[in-house]
Amino acid sequence: MDLDLQHKTVFVTGASSGIGLAAVELFAKEGCFVIAGYRSNAEAAEALISKIRAGSGDGMAVHIDLESPKSIRECVAAIVERTGSIYSVIFNAGANKLTAFDEIQEEEWDSIMAVNLKGPFFLMQAIAPHITPGGSAVFVSSIAGQMGAPGHVHYAVSKGGIISLTKSAAKRYASNIRVNCVAPGVTLTPMGENAVKDADPDYAKRMLLSRRFAEPAEVAKVIVFLASPAASFIYGATIDVNGGRELR
Ligand SMILES: NC(=O)c1ccc[n+]([C@@H]2O[C@H](COP(=O)([O-])OP(=O)(O)OC[C@H]3O[C@@H](n4cnc5c(N)ncnc54)[C@H](OP(=O)(O)O)[C@@H]3O)[C@@H](O)[C@H]2O)c1
């Protein structure tokens, strides 16, 4: 199937690791000009872009800290200066902290909310005018946002909010931008591995129809599809990529 992504510009936040890094690699293989957003790991994002250039693709790395409105504005300005406009934005960056429900303090709550929900909202608001008509946006939620998670309730609430933000943004931008979302289950990235480090070693076998956790590329493929013109009739949807977690 032709995803029709050739020569389109795509911006992925959280591209220095895990799912975002895998998504940038896949977009580059589809012929996109890729913009890899990083917060602290500039080296990983620059190495990713160098690898893509060596393979005849192209792109750039850009700094963005979703906790900082100033950084969001500067990032959008840097992208617009370099590319003029973009075809798609992928709101992939996220932060998680395993803290018991009763122990979460205000500062930690605010920080998780800023990275996972407030930042993506203000980035959407700032970047939407620079998305070409017919373009797309993909948010990244989590199964925690659908099922609840008392061991990281701030994260779960922020990811539930992302599903709601997806629907509101889909309605707001319907005439120009298709907005959708993916909701992964545990995925083998630094964040995912940390989330299950103390879990029962048979968790995947007991709880998932897949009987294993996801590889980053398995989530990234769904992101790439949703972003592409091949998903032209999908609006405001949240696609589960969780190995059948709710069915067991
Ligand atoms: N892995 C899972 O099991 C799982 C399950 C469900 C949903 N998800 C969601 O999938 C997305 C990707 O997660 P992942 O597992 O690939 O995570 P990861 O490997 O830990 O990578 C997280 C990425 O987010 C970036 N980031 C963190 N804080 C940021 C901030 N303040 N501003 C901008 N970027 C920031 C990091 O950048 P630097 O490293 O450069 O700082 C990094 O690139 C997240 O939204 C996550 O919630 C993951």
Q: What is the helical fraction, as a range of percent?
A: 40-55%
Low confidence ranges: none
> What's the number of helices?
9
CATH superfamily: NAD(P)-binding Rossmann-like Domain
| Beta-strand percentage range | 15-25%
Roughly how many Å apart are the termini? 32 Å
Rg over CA atoms: 17 Å
Largest sheet: 7 strands, parallel
Q: What structural category characterises the helix and strand content?
A: alpha/beta
Strand order of the largest sheet: 3-2-1-4-5-6-7
CATH-defined topology: Rossmann fold
**Bound chemical compounds:** NADP nicotinamide-adenine-dinucleotide phosphate
CATH level 1 name: Alpha Beta
- Average pLDDT across residues? 97
Key terms:
alpha/beta; Rossmann fold; 9 helices; binds NADP nicotinamide-adenine-dinucleotide phosphate
